[in-house]
Amino acid sequence: MSPALPTGRFSAPPTGRFAPSPTGPLHAGSAVAALASWLDARAQGGRWLVRIEDVDTPRCQPGAAEVILGQLAALGLLPDAPPLWQSSRGAAYQAALDRLLAAGLAYPCGCSRRDIDAAWAAQGRPHDRFAERVYPGTCRAGLNGKPARATRLMTVVDGAGVQIAWTDRRLGAQQQDVAQAVGDFILHRADGLWAYQLAVVVDDAAQGVTDVVRGADLADNTARQIHLQRQLGLPTPRHLHTPLVLAPDGHKLSKQNGAAPLDTRQPLATLQAAAAVLGLPALPATSVTDWLAAATRAWAAAWPLQPAVHGTVA
C-alpha cells in the first residue's frame, strides 16, 4: 500500500526545519539559515526539526551528515525529533508522483538538455548559460517515439501559465509566472534520482512544517513549490528568506566556492556572527543557553508572531 499523503491543512504546532545537504560541513552561510530557522520556531513556542537532504546521492560525502549534526549540537541547536533522511523516503515520493501522473498533472519527458537548447535555438532564443533553462513543453503532448528520461510537472493549466503570488515575511510581496520563468519542471530525474522540488514539498508536509526559513538564494524555488503543493492538495507554509553571507568575490558563500567549514570551538562567537547577518543586536551572554534565550526574544521582537497557517495561500 502506498503511504498516505497529508491533507491540505496543518494539524501540527508551529514547526520549522533546517534541511542541509550532506555535501560537506556547515559554513558561515548555512549557520545563518540554521540559526534563523531555530530562533523562528522557538519564538513561536514551536518545534524545530532537522532533515538531511541526501536525495542527490552522488554529491553527498560520507560522514558529512554526522559532522553537520555535531556542528549544530555544538551551537546548541538541537532538533526536537531524530533527523529525517531523504534517502529513506523513496516510497513517499513515488506515491506523490503516482498521484500526479494519474491526475494528468505530470508526464514523462524524453528531452535532454541539448534537446531543450535546440528547441529554443530553433525559435531564435539561444540559452544563456547563466539563466534558468526553461522547458519549452516539447513532450507535453507525448514522447513522439523518444524513450522517457524524466518526469515533469505541468505549469500550464487550461491553456494558461500558472501564476503564483505569495508574501515573504522579509522580502514582501512576490509573484512568478512559473511557466515563463522555469517551464514544466522535473520531479523525477533522468538518472533515476528524485528531484529536490518534489522531495522538499512531500517532506515539509509529512513533517508538518508551518514555516520555511532559509537563505534568499532559495526564494526562486518558492513559486514552483507552492504550485506543486496545490497540485498535491498539501498545505503551504509561510516563508522567510534570510540575507546571504557573501564570499570576497561578492558571490554567495557556498561549499562550491570553497567556503571554510564552520568553526564551532567558540560557539558564542559563531552564533553572534550569524545573528549580526540576521540584523539582531549584540547580545552579551556567558553561555550558549543564555545567548540563545536572549536571541529568541530579540527575534520575536524583530519578527512579531503571526497567526498559524491553515490551508494553502492565495
UniProtKB/TrEMBL annotation:
Pfam families attached here?
tRNA-synt_1c
Keyword Aminoacyl-tRNA synthetase attributed: yes
Q: Give the residue interval(s) assigned to the motif 'HIGH' region.
A: 20-30
One term of GO molecular function: glutamate-tRNA ligase activity
Q: Which UniProt keywords apply?
A: Aminoacyl-tRNA synthetase, ATP-binding, Ligase, Metal-binding, Nucleotide-binding, Protein biosynthesis, Zinc
- Location of the motif 'KMSKS' region: 252-256
Binding residue positions for ATP: K255
The Swiss-Prot or TrEMBL record lists the needed cofactor(s) as:
Zn(2+)
State the EC number(s).
6.1.1.-
Q: Which residues form the Glutamyl/glutaminyl-tRNA synthetase class Ib catalytic domain?
A: 17-259
Region Disordered, as annotated, extends over 1-23
The answer to whether keyword Repeat applies is no
Q: Which GO terms describe its biological process?
A: glutamyl-tRNA aminoacylation; tRNA modification
What the protein does comes down to: Catalyzes the tRNA-independent activation of glutamate in presence of ATP and the subsequent transfer of glutamate onto a tRNA(Asp). Glutamate is transferred on the 2-amino-5-(4,5-dihydroxy-2-cyclopenten-1-yl) moiety of the queuosine in the wobble position of the QUC anticodon.
Question: What family does the Swiss-Prot or TrEMBL record give for this protein?
Answer: Belongs to the class-I aminoacyl-tRNA synthetase family. GluQ subfamily.
- Write the protein's name: Glutamyl-Q tRNA(Asp) synthetase
Q: Which organism is it from?
A: Pseudaquabacterium pictum
User: The organism's lineage?
Assistant: Bacteria, Pseudomonadati, Pseudomonadota, Betaproteobacteria, Burkholderiales
Source gene? Answer: gluQ
